[in-house]
Design brief:
The complex is a heterodimer of chains A (251) and B (131). Chain A is 30% helix and 14% strand. Chain A is α+β, with helices and mostly antiparallel strands and 251 residues long. Chain A has 2 domains: 2-107, Roll (Ubiquitin-like (UB roll)), CATH 3.10.20; 110-241, Orthogonal Bundle (Fumarate Reductase Iron-sulfur Protein, Chain B, domain 2), CATH 1.10.1060. Chain B is built from 4 helices and 2 strands, in the order αααββα. With 131 residues, chain B is mainly alpha-helical. The chains are: A alpha+beta (251), B mainly alpha (131). The structure holds iron/sulfur cluster and FE2/S2 (inorganic) cluster.
């Protein structure tokens, strides 16, 4: 091995519901090489130092969205963050903020999953077509209207970056609202009226105060803040015109 | 019975946690100064309605040392306010294309700031021309 082995200190916020009243920090000394991610550092802890440390991961290549954690207080994918960038200092890892800690670095994603389902994250065809009628055509520009918003990997980093969600978990939150916009903005989709009921509610787009940190931390360039805030105009127009357009209003 | 006991962390002092949140809060606080200055201008309008002497009194008041200091503070705060709002403006705009090319966030922010500068210069020019 070309790299000489270095040792880095990793502090892990532990929470074992059966024994800890509240989370506590625990420090581990981890030998590492320059090509090791923070995830690999935590895996080293589990494999060689303390098998009780719990965390989620799967793909190790920034695509499954399961390894998100606070790394030195910033929401990041641990498989896409490298130990060498923290050396010779130490680093702290903690479960994603604003979400309840289930155990150690694992958050309770129930709320996120429930919301994800509620926005109908699939295309509701504008017009039914038979196979014989062929595919739904779309121009490159029509595709550009939603493409970036379709890159979401449900990693929840944006939720850990959103103080509004932390203060009020009823707020639908950045990632899910961005996904809602992804389908609404698709020229083949006709489900806007159904989804807007959620989008235009207090917990929808208006729960956002344009902090903008969600877009900063998103590992996939989704820009949830943009997806949300560009809808406020439509929502306001809808609010004021619902009295004058009979039947044209969403609740 | 389930052994689950999800732990919810406190949000106390959340805005001090990250430099990003601090700058967000600073942006929000500047709105208070905007409102305060609107009150100052509104007072001027009320005095104007009360006649020339009242209005001149208000103008006189604006030249007192305290009001000068206040204006300097407000000017600095408004500069930050303008910059921070135009910085977030691209987030509020739908995806736009000009000549088949996507309009970049920097272009939107730059255009907004340029418009603000032009508006300020126009006001200064008009006021300068009147007095
Ligand atoms: S929008 Fe970005 S940060 Fe939020 S869940 Fe999707 S990929 Fe993760
Ligand atoms: S392990 Fe899949 S995103 Fe990190």
């Amino acid at each position: 091995m070309a790299d000489t082995e270095k040792i880095i200190e990793i502090e892990v916020l532990r929470y074992r519901p059966e024994q800890d009243k509240e989370p506590v920090w625990q420090t581990y000394k981890v030998p590492f090489t320059d090509d090791m991610s923070v995830l690999q550092g935590v895996q080293y802890i589990k494999d060689y130092l303390d098998e009780t440390v719990s965390f989620r991961w799967s793909c190790r290549m920034a695509i499954c969205g399961s390894c998100g954690m606070m790394i030195d207080d910033k929401p990041k994918l641990s498989c896409k963050t490298f130990l060498r960038d923290y050396y010779p200092g130490k680093l702290r890892v903690e479960a994603l903020k604003h979400l309840p800690i289930e155990r150690d670095l694992i958050v309770d994603a129930t709320d996120f999953m429930k919301k994800l389902e509620s926005i109908k994250p699939y295309i509701i065809p504008k017009e039914e077509r038979t196979l014989a009628q062929g595919e739904y055509l779309q121009t490159p520009q029509q595709r550009d209207m939603y493409e970036q918003f379709s890159s979401c990997i449900n990693c929840m980093l944006c939720y850990a970056a959103c103080p509004q969600y932390g203060l009020n978990p009823k707020f639908t939150g950045p990632g899910i609202l961005a996904l809602m916009h992804r389908y609404n903005a698709d020229s083949r989709d006709g489900g806007q009226a159904e989804r807007n009921e959620l989008g235009y509610a207090d917990e929808g787009y208006w729960g956002c105060t344009a902090v903008g940190y969600c877009s900063e931390v998103c590992p996939k360039g989704v820009d949830p803040a943009n997806a949300i805030n560009q809808n406020k105009m439509n929502s306001a127009i809808n609010y004021f015109t619902r009295f004058i357009t009979p039947g044209g209003a969403d609740k | 019975m389930s052994n689950r006991r999800p732990y919810v962390r406190s949000m106390d002092g959340w805005w001090k946690r990250d430099a990003y949140f601090v700058s967000y809060m600073a942006r929000e606080v500047t709105s208070v100064f905007v409102a305060a200055y609107a009150v100052v201008l509104l007072a001027g309008l009320v005095r104007l309605g009360q006649g020339e002497a009242a209005f001149n009194g208000w103008l006189q008041y604006l030249t007192t040392p305290w009001m000068k200091v206040f204006h300097l503070i407000v000017l600095a705060v408004f500069c930050y306010h303008t910059w921070s709002w135009f910085k977030i403006m691209p987030k509020t705009m739908p995806i736009m294309f000009v000549g088949g090319k996507r309009v970049q966030p920097g272009t939107i922010t730059g255009t907004g700031l340029a418009a603000a500068v032009v508006a300020c210069l126009a006001v200064l020019f008009i006021v300068g021309g009147v007095s």
